[in-house]
Design a protein that fits this description.
Layout lengths: L5 E3 L5 E10 L2 E6 L3 E6 L13 E7 L2 E7 H4 L12 E7 L2 E7 L1 E9 L3 E2 L8 H5 E7 L2 E6 L1 H4 L3 H9 L1
Parallel strand pairs: 3-12, 6-8
Antiparallel strand pairs: 1-2, 2-3, 2-9, 4-7, 5-6, 7-8, 10-11, 11-12
């Protein structure tokens, strides 16, 4: 995917490209610069003692990649993978993971004026996983904070032992 992810408009406002994905009836978006590839669902191998949101691990061209049920990681009901499911491979620094979603929807170009802050809920958890909201037509799309989704040190240790 060779797409310019960030550019300035003629008015100096920042424009960022995001990939939108669907989980159930909800739409989420992530920075396209964090995405390595998009692939269809393949059966994963169970990772013993991993958190419930870890679907398993797959072999991605010789590298072990953990697959995260994005719905469950975000506090939604778990997704049961189907042949139509998609794994979005994301990177954050030297960490990589596959995010299981129902579908990839679109590439969205977002300007600063389209973004809204995550609302206060009385707890920091929603702001940990959602870095903002996008208002588009009659939809509200949550922008996912990729670094918070990455496997922690304990899961990385399990992967290395596998």
């Amino acid at each position: 995917m060779n797409i310019t992810a960030q550019r300035k408009s003629t008015h100096g406002e920042q424009r960022i490209e995001l990939l939108s994905v669907r989980i159930g009836a909800q739409e989420f978006a992530m920075d396209i610069r964090s995405i390595r590839e998009i692939r269809g669902w393949i059966a994963s191998t169970h990772l013993p003692h991993a958190p419930a949101f870890i679907k398993g691990m797959i072999n991605l061209r010789g590298t072990v990649l953990v697959v995260i049920d994005l719905a469950q990681r975000l506090g939604l009901p778990p997704v049961e993978p189907s042949p139509a499911s998609v794994v979005v491979v994301v990177e954050d620094g030297d960490k990589a993971a596959g995010l299981l979603v129902d579908a990839v929807c679109d590439i969205i170009t977002v300007t600063d004026d389209m973004r809204q802050p995550t609302p206060e809920t009385g707890t920091a958890t929603p702001r940990e996983y959602v870095e903002g909201l996008i208002m588009m037509e009659n939809r509200i799309i949550s922008i996912i904070a990729i670094p918070t989704l990455m496997p922690d040190a304990a899961v990385q240790a399990l992967l290395e032992a596998a």
